[in-house]
Structure formats: structure tokens, C-alpha cells
Amino acid sequence: MTQSSFKARCVSTSETMADQAALETKSVTLAYEQNVIAKDLSVNIPHGKFTVIVGPNGCGKSTLLRSLSRLLVPKSGEILLNGENIHSQSIREVAKKLGLLPQSAIAPDGIKVIDLVSRGRFPHQKWFQPWSEADQTAVELAMQATGVIDFAQLNVDQLSGGQRQRVWVAMALAQETSLLLLDEPTTYLDIAHQIELMDLFQDLNRIQGHTLVAVLHDLNHACRYADHLIMIKSGEIIATGSPNDIITETLIEAVFGLSCLILPDPISNTPLIIPRGRASTAAN
Ligand code: ADP
Ligand code: MG
């Protein structure tokens, strides 16, 4: 199977879902018992776009992603998936529409790469049906797209952090959902593998029509790849829109407390954020 057959398969998958609405939260309160992380939060994930969520450590990005994927029930407000309350849909129904790559996912001890990727097929399987050709094809294509097919028979714990991360992405792709939520998908990767994976996500979005939501720490990657950027601080949305429209030195200072210089990225013409840090004092 080739990269192009992977694309052809995903195009047909996304086309059948073309009239589906986006994900949204409507005035949700997200909390862990009494610890309120976000109050009255309304987030819109536009259909067919690559949305990136950024914000300081602990501001609630993973909490928001968990709520968007039905893992965390809001204390108030509602979450709509394709215009329908996500909690009125079963876990299996949601898992056919939406895949989540959690932050710091932990693989079961001793599991092989192919077996972990195969777990992405769970929502498509029925107890009375054996593993199908469609399941096999989805797993192989996902492993090819992420470059992990050569490791198929290795144990996940034998892999480097970067290779392991690509296996998790393969598992999410094998699920064949039109919506993918990715929590810090590039964190353990070297720069070349970060770009390779970000380019893969961009292809999934632009060529195959997947709606993507990624939490990223690298602001320059966020500006380069996002159609729609959401900046969060302390559980509140501070700005949303295209990076070119919203990113300013004042905004970065307000959200991250970081003094910086912003130039146009000569490759992508998106904002390039250069921290001033102590170097600016030394230069003056
Ligand atoms: P981010 O992803 O932006 O770094 P998180 O959403 O993980 O932030 O966390 C937001 C806040 O919620 C933090 O203060 C964190 O300590 C708290 N938190 C996260 N997960 C849990 C949990 N399972 N139980 C209790 N508090 C949590
Ligand atoms: Mg997080």
C-alpha cells in the first residue's frame, strides 16, 4: 500500500462526513472536584480547520481537550459534537468521530507496536465479528503514514521517545476519525521529526479534510501551522483567530509574561516570535 492509497482512503472517509458541524463548548465550567479550572468557557473548533491551542503550563489546555473528547464531564454548560450533546452519544459513537492522542500516553507493558496501533480499531469492531480486512488495511496505512511500519513487531518500550510518539499518532490515525485532538504531539521529538509530524498533520487537514486540534508549546510552530489559534491563560480565552491577525508582542507578554520581538517568518510569512530574555539587556 502506498502513501497515495492512504490519502485516497482518508479522502473518501472525510467526504462522507463533509456536512458535519464542528466541536464546541458552550459556557462550560471545568473542574476537578472543587478545583475549578475554567469557568463559562466557550470554545469553537471550526470544521475542516487546523486549530492550535497555546497557553502557559497549567492553564487548562489538557483539561479542555479532555472535555472536548468526552473524558471529563463539565460541571455546567454543554459540549456539542456535530451539533449534538457529546454526552448523549455513547463512547463508541464518539470514538468513531473523534480520536484523542493524550499528553504523556502510557502503553501497556510489553505491547508490540502493531498491537498498540490495532487498538485504534476498537470503535469499529463488534464482538461477533473477527478482525477484518478493513481493520488490517487501516492499521497498515496508519503505520505507513507515520513511518513506523518497520517497527511493527518490536515492543513499544524498545523504541525511542520520538518513535513511540509516532506509534501513538498511528493508533489515532487507525481509528479513522474525521476529527483528531492531539495533546502536545511533538513534545519528545527532535526538530526534524517535529516538522515531519507537523507536515503530516497539515496534510491530514488540507489534503484529507480532517479537522485537527493540537495543543502545542512551540509558538512558532503554532503560528506556522494553525489556521485558527486559541490562546488560553488561567482557563480563559485571551485571543482567538488566525496567527497573523492576533499575534502581537503585547499579547505574548500578557499571556506568557515574555518580552519578545515579532518578525515575519521568512519561510511561511507567519509571525516569528523571538524571545528577548536576558540577551536584550546584554545587548543594550
Ligand atoms: P495544561 O495542559 O495547560 O498544562 P492542565 O489542564 O493539565 O494544564 O491542568 C490545569 C490545572 O488542573 C492544573 O492546575 C492541574 O494541576 C490541574 N489538574 C490537571 N489534571 C488534574 C486531575 N486529574 N486532578 C486534579 N487536578 C488536575
Ligand atoms: Mg497539558
UniProtKB/TrEMBL annotation:
> What's this protein's name?
ABC transporter ATP-binding protein
Drop me one GO molecular function for this one. Answer: ATP binding
Any idea where this protein resides?
A: Cell membrane
Q: What is its main location?
A: membrane
* UniProt-listed Gene3D superfamilies: P-loop containing nucleotide triphosphate hydrolases
Q: What Pfam families does the entry give? A: ABC_tran (PF00005)
- Whether Secreted counts among this entry's keywords is no
**Origin species:** Psychromonas arctica
Q: Which UniProt keywords apply?
A: ATP-binding, Cell membrane, Ion transport, Iron, Iron transport, Membrane, Nucleotide-binding, Transport
Q: Which InterPro entries match?
A: AAA+_ATPase, ABC_transporter-like_ATP-bd, ABC_transporter-like_CS, P-loop_NTPase, Siderophore_ABC-ATPase
User: What topology does the record note for this protein and the membrane?
Assistant: Peripheral membrane protein
Q: What is the lineage of its organism?
A: Bacteria, Pseudomonadati, Pseudomonadota, Gammaproteobacteria, Alteromonadales
